[in-house]
Amino acid sequence: MRISRSRSVLLAGAVAVTLSATALPAAFAAPSSTAVISEVYGGGGNSGATLTRDFVELANSGSAAYDLSGFSVQYLPGAPSAGSLWQVSALTGSVAPGGRYLVAQAAGTGGTVALPAPDATGTVAMSAASGSIALVSGTTPLTCKTAADCAADTRVVDLVGYGSAVVREGSGPATGASATASVARAASLADTDDNATDLSAAPPTPVNAAGETPGGGTDPGDPGNPTEPGTVRVHDIQGTTRVSPLDGKAVTGVPGIVTAVRTTGSKGFWIQDTAPDADPRTGEGVFVYTGSTAPAVAVGDSVLVSGTVDEYYPSATTQSITEITAPRTTVLSSGNALPAPVVLDAAAVPAAYVPSAGGASIDALPLEPSVYALDLYESLEGTRVQIADTRVTGATTAYDEIWVTVEPKQNPTRRGGTLYSSYTDQNTGRIKVMSLDTTRPFPVGNVGDVLSGTTTGVIDYASFGGYNLQATELGTLKDNGLRREVTRRQKGGELAVATYNVENLDALDEQAKFDTLAEGVAVNLSSPDIVSLEEIQDDNGAVSDGTVGSEATLKRFTDAIVAAGGPRYAWRYVAPQDGQDGGEPGGNIRNVFLFNPHRVSFVDRAGGDAATAVAAVPTRKGVTLSVSPGRIAPASAAWDDSRKPLVGEFRFHGKPVFVIGNHFASKGGDQPLHGRYQEPSRSSETKRVQQAAEVNTFVKSLLAADKSARVVTLGDLNDFAFSPTMSALTAGKALKPLITTLPANEQYSYVYEGNSQTLDHILTSPGIRRFDYDVVHINAEFADQASDHDPQIVRIKADGRR
After folding, report:
1. Which has the closest alpha carbon to 791: 534, 488, 512?
2. Average pLDDT over residues 636-653
3. DSSP character for 606?
4. How far apart are CA 747 and CA 743, in angstroms?
5. pTM of the model
């Protein structure tokens, strides 16, 4: 079993983010006098390499054994992009005093010499030229992407950056790593916390805990290149569950026809047996992984493949992809007819989504492809399939992906999407379409368009989105003319309050982003009186230099709104403490109120800083705020490393209105809907429920002082209308969620993996009895979007009467 091998295909098309390569602080977890990373080699199996696998060697210069139970080594690319993740290889056992400990990583297709028996085995395909390796106390992936941030993580025991690595110890990374050279410490194992000084290039010399070094000869798992089929067929490899019964075993001469070839990113090809068995559970297709080497086969080749069967897990919570790795391929003939594709349509896909294992892994459950949609897709993994005239449910992404449904009547939204309405009502017909054809542009489609004609390809699996169709023949996109909505302008006696997540806006962003977002406010939202913004960053964005103000960002944004025909908005916010509100490192994300001073006034009450809690103050005339703007319970653990709610007191037609802008904790860390654990755990929910309870408590304090107080709570709550978060927020009927007042097929503001869903909300207190609410669809359904969220607006009658 392999977990989290780095695969560039998952990041294909991603925009690279250049990170600062500043030197580490002098104290990087303090130089180690015991366990250190003694050697790093990422050239295993590359062209020109002798060794077949990458490796990391640890050493112990101490006088006692160093226990590695619960530890890990973790890898990050040398120049990490925004989507790069630390990849984890768990460790067990210990390093003897003066001893070594060998961690084998991914194998390539080259080399002839095997490593000595490893003490731990990972799956990471390390770069030969550049990367970062950390020895970590724990197995939770690191999140740091800069040297300074990693230095601040106390779990890091030792770290080696080599090549041009951004994350490294000291003045520079170790240099000279290549397909034929590792970077290694001197025999003294000296650690000065300066990689450039402590490690140097040399021929790789891996040593395991038993003191063994590489033996000569070829890898004993090398099956050679037979010319006759062996005894194992593809359906024997795939088996009747999600995990191959031959996982980890060598196979020889597996026959099949090459049905598709991937020449970019994670390279390889698919084969399919033309003599299937009678069991619908056992798939007839399989992926042959060639790593960084382009496949030397063509579609239509009849081949025999020898290698090692492996279950590749893109992450610890996803399902796996059954593969043949380190392959040796014999081409018997070319130009052969391909197996007929399996037709995927509404009649073929079961109504149920996935079996339950009570939260445990479904890996060992026998597949039931006639009962569960995910079992059907798993049984077709690596197999040619065909879809026809499919409705687009998720717009084309920056990675050239588009979501469609093969069940056109399944939970359609008013504008052509597919509604996600409960944890138990999954949309089984959704599938992501990608293209293996690099010679033609990928079609750009919006929700409600149709991928017309037939699309043919093979079923694959990825960490983002799960099962997908890697198309060899792509249908034609039919534009169904989806248009961005424009809401009506508020009347004189209506207070218009909106929420808009503007996706990490800061003063360094391009003017085009400001202009598009501004048009959304001025035109599509028709210039609300109050706009509660989420994801405003400090003025220099993701730069960690102590800046917390957002004046330049808000000046550019409000100028752009004026240029788009909107009013001259004023703004209020509470600047966060540096680095305390989560979000993008260095960005100091916060909530902000914009308001039109010609229509509504803001009641300023001094003292509302980052650490001061706002309170309800009863008066003879109702309730006021102790500070305005202010923050709700900023010292509460509910808001640790998270955005704090912004509270403001406004007056409209002489009457107070209290607005609470929110941005609850993200859903990051939740297990995927398509993952190996069913039902999936929603671990991030705990934090949001705590946050919702804090807001609910504050709203109740306002209502306790004045039961008719008009309160608008709104923002990106990162959860659904049917979630425990919403139950905690509305407890005691303190607030009414307005999304539920819309027709069911309009209850969404966000599209994720082809599901139209609601993460953004507006809620109102009982004192607001007459309102008009609208979700304004201008982003989430479109390939060209200024934000991935749609804004919302509520118009409230000033007199409050029905």
Report:
1. 534
2. 96
3. S
4. 7
5. 0.74
